[in-house]
Design goal:
Radius of gyration of chain B: 23 Å
Oligomer: heterodimer
Largest sheet of chain A: 6 strands, mixed
Helix content of chain B: under 10%
Distance between the termini of chain B: 58 Å
Largest interface: A-B, 34 and 35 residues
Strand order of the largest sheet of chain B: 1-29-30-31-32
Structural class of chain B: mainly beta
CATH superfamily of chain B: Quinoprotein alcohol dehydrogenase-like superfamily
Shape of chain B: globular
CATH topology of chain B: Methanol Dehydrogenase, Chain A
Strand order of the largest sheet of chain A: 1-8-4-5-6-7
Helix content of chain A: 10-25%
Shape of chain A: elongated
CATH architecture of chain B: 8 Propeller
Number of helices of chain A: 3
CATH class of chain B: Mainly Beta
Number of domains of chain B: 1
């Protein structure tokens, strides 16, 4: 009895095991100015269908990451000491203004990358697994934990499930989020990003 | 009348002799510690025998019936610290240690307890106050006790060695092991002491800070120091020249894993910790002897007989604080008295334990900081694979600074002839950002009592129990876990290997091929080495997980 290897289809995911997600530099992207109000309309439209997976301020599915505070400014610091887990939110002071502007730009590019190429960079907290069962059934879920014998997931029907590896034929760590590269216009993308940047949480 | 009196005297004499011999039978003599193979029902030392093998001769539990193991009792510690203690068992009494409690405003207590080994019921408790300021780098832990006669010996986090009456749990003596130490320097004892003849040997941890590590032997009756060996030589002593400037004064090289003893040569072997400061290697140029080494000392005098340094001038925190495992093994047609060592640096070694000769060495996990040995066993470093503070090129170094293995004990089965090690594979430090950093295998933190989610991929590191043939250092089998492990290994004459890991499973493997025979989730991380004993003919296997101690036996 050994482990069933998870095939990481995301090279970047192997590097993302850190709270320092925002330290990654996503590719440059040129976008027109966005409008948050229009962006919200796109976000909630059936065309984009974002809420089928994402929740914002209590509305939408819990399956994907909650985006209620996705536009909140990143926090500085957070170097891992011996034995340190991820730093608690708010543990480090906010960045000074010039650094915050640069971080803002990075965040926008990051959001664009996540929308256009969802598998390019996935944080440890948002790893998803696609399990192909021995009977052919497929189960997609947010990977909460895995051990030698089972996967602990939050599945696409919003259920917590412990899936025994005995019943799994293949496991692939991949984001279930589709690419919006061909679904949104450049303007719509800019608008959605503006909307997301406006979401600062409570 | 005289004849009658003679008969009475003779009878009385016999009675006294009988009483004395019964009392002596209850006493744990050093002879008993040397011949634990004659009483496999007991577990008299940290490693089960003075050779460091962590092997039980009991075979009631075996590959055929281990699936019928059933929990017999739990003992819950009143502590939130890791339970790293290996219990000892003497004639049906189990002695174990509660790690110091760590409440916000009060001093914590280390608690020694005597339990009925068959039922877990408590006979007595002995509490020892530990000041809040006393701590080790990585948890307020204690790995175990030693026993001789009717006396238990324990080191404390505030640098004391104490002797406790094993029958009633009262203090006999209390010796500060380093009374001259400035308060700013921290010399915690986390290691289980080792008894050799009439001496109890301990060393102190704290080598991540500015200490000068040492081993010392104390008289078992009085607690008076008999000898002291500094793991960093002083001026004028051979090896002092391997430290630049004054760095030898604060060079670390702590002791935090129990050594072993070879009665044939009267040598005691101990692994030493990293040089300090760990990642500021340019401040301590040179090989930094005897850090990251095994030292072989005359057990009567503490004089150095030989040494072997696993990682010269270490900048990766590759403490050599593993249990030296001794056995006589035929290598290339010749019976050799060897020492087996699976090191934190990712390399496995076989040394001649009488001379320290390097017989062979080989990586047992992925290693990239070295690419070979010279004929004397000195590793050849790969250029650039250094800490960036030491001129490194910033690429990932394997294994991680938390080690291919660490303090958790390995096992050797004379029956299978295999050496069993729990280890981390694919672990690394540094490399493309964001790095794993001090957290180890890409963010895996130090051990913790409680279960924690794990979402690492295989490329990011995982735990294994691996079996090696010490004749060749070839791997014979492995059991893979998804998460890494901080659990030791026990092998038994029933051809069962017991271990666990960070996932909180305690499991049994076939010692011959590694197949999984039994498992149970214990609800906390296994941060200890299992051991085995028997009471009234019933074999138990015991392991600590989370903050509790669990004992298993076959279903009736």
């Amino acid at each position: 009895m050994g482990t069933l290897p998870i095939r990481s289809v995301i090279l970047a995911a192997a590097l993302a095991a850190s709270p320092l997600l925002w330290a990654q530099t996503p590719p440059e992207i040129s976008l027109p100015p966005g409008d948050a109000v229009r962006g919200k309309a796109v976000f909630t439209s059936s065309k984009a269908n974002c809420q089928s997976c994402h929740r914002v301020q209590g509305t939408g599915s819990l399956f994907g990451p909650d985006l209620s505070a996705i536009g909140a400014p990143p926090r500085g610091g957070g170097g891992a000491g011996r034995g340190a887990a991820a730093p608690a939110p708010g543990a480090a002071p906010a960045l000074p203004a010039p650094a915050a502007n640069a971080a803002n730009d990075t965040m926008m590019r990051q959001l664009a990358q996540s929308i256009l190429d969802p598998n390019a960079l996935v944080s440890v907290q948002n790893r998803y697994v696609l399990l192909t069962m021995k009977d052919g059934k497929k189960i997609s879920g947010k990977l909460l934990s895995l051990d030698t014998f089972a996967y602990q997931i939050f599945d696409s029907t919003e259920k917590l499930a412990n899936v025994s590896k005995e019943n799994v034929r293949e496991a692939t760590m991949t984001s279930p989020m589709p690419s919006y590269r061909d679904k949104l216009t450049t303007q719509e993308l800019a608008d959605v990003i503006s909307y997301l940047m406006s979401l600062k949480g409570q | 009348m005289k004849r009658k009196l003679r008969t009475v005297y003779a009878a009385l004499g016999l009675l006294i002799l009988a009483a004395v011999s019964i009392l002596q039978a209850q006493q744990v003599t050093f002879d008993r510690l040397l011949h634990t193979d004659k009483e496999p029902q007991n577990w008299l030392t940290y490693s089960g025998n003075v050779l460091g093998q962590r092997y039980s001769l009991l075979n009631q539990i075996n590959t055929g019936n281990v699936k019928n193991l059933e929990l017999q009792w739990i003992w819950q510690a009143k502590s939130l610290e890791k339970f790293e203690t290996t219990s000892i068992v003497v004639d049906g009494i189990l002695y174990t240690i509660q790690a110091p409690t760590n409440t916000a405003n009060t001093d914590g207590n280390t608690q020694v307890v005597a339990l009925d080994a068959a039922t877990g019921r408590v006979f007595w408790r002995y509490q020892y106050a530990i000041p809040q300021t006393a701590s080790a780098c990585c948890g307020r832990v204690n790995r175990g006790l030693a026993i001789l006669g009717d006396t238990l010996y324990m080191g404390t986090l505030n640098s004391h060695l104490i002797a406790i009456n094993a029958k009633v749990g009262t203090l006999i003596w209390d010796t500060p092991v380093n009374p001259t130490v400035p308060p700013a320097r921290n010399y915690p004892i986390t290691v289980a002491p080792l008894i050799v003849k009439d001496k109890v040997i301990v060393g102190t941890a704290g080598g991540d800070g500015p200490i000068r590590g040492f081993l010392a032997a104390y008289d078992v009756k009085t607690g008076k120091e008999v000898w002291r060996f500094y793991t960093i030589p002083g001026p004028g002593e051979p090896g002092n020249e391997t430290w630049s400037g004054e760095s030898w004064k604060v060079g670390g090289a702590g002791i935090w894993t129990t050594g072993s003893y070879d009665p044939e040569t009267n040598l005691t072997f101990w692994g030493t910790g990293n040089p300090s400061p760990t990642n500021q290697a340019p401040t301590r140029l040179g090989d930094n002897l005897y850090s990251d080494s095994v030292v072989a000392l005359d057990a009567d005098t503490g004089k150095l007989k030989w040494h072997y340094q696993f990682t010269p001038h270490d900048d990766q925190d590759y403490d050599s604080t593993q249990v030296p495992v001794l056995a006589d093994i035929e290598i290339k047609g010749k019976l050799r008295k060897v020492m087996m060592w699976a090191n934190r640096n990712g390399l496995m070694y076989v040394l001649d334990r009488t001379t320290g000769e390097f017989i062979q060495g080989k990586p047992y996990v992925k290693v990239n900081w070295m690419d070979g040995f010279d004929e004397k066993g000195r590793p050849h470093r790969v250029p650039g694979k250094l800490a960036t503070t030491n001129g490194g090129d910033g690429t990932a170094i394997m294994p991680t600074i938390l080690g291919a293995t660490n303090w958790y004990p390995p096992s050797y089965s004379p029956k299978t002839g295999l050496f069993y090690v729990s280890a981390w594979e694919n672990s690394k430090t540094g490399g493309p950002a964001p790095a794993g950093g001090r957290g180890g295998a890409n963010g895996t933190p130090m051990a913790d009592p409680a279960l924690a989610p794990n979402v690492k991929t295989e490329e990011e590191g995982y735990g294994v129990v691996r079996a090696f043939d010490p004749k060749t250092l070839d791997q014979k089998w492995e059991f893979k876990m998804n998460d890494i492990t901080w659990a030791g290994v026990l092998s038994t004459a029933g051809d069962v290997v017991f271990s666990g890991g960070r996932e909180g499973y305690f499991f049994a493997l076939d010692a011959r091929n590694g197949s999984l025979l039994w498992k149970i989730p214990l609800g906390g991380q296994v941060n200890s080495g299992p051991m085995s004993y028997s009471v009234n003919g019933k074999q138990f296997v015991s392991v600590a997980a989370g903050t509790s101690l669990f004992s298993f036996a076959l279903r009736n």
